[in-house]
Amino acid sequence: MEDAFDPAMTRMAIAAGFWVLLHVVVAGSPLRWAIAGRVGENGFRGLFSVLSFVGIVWLSIAYRQATSAESFYGIRYVETWMMWAPTALMIPAVIFFVGSLSQPNPTMVKGERFLGSDDPARGIFRVTRHPMLWS
Question: H-type helices in the chain, by residue range?
Answer without folding.
Answer: 7-21, 30-39, 41-66, 69-72, 84-102, 131-134
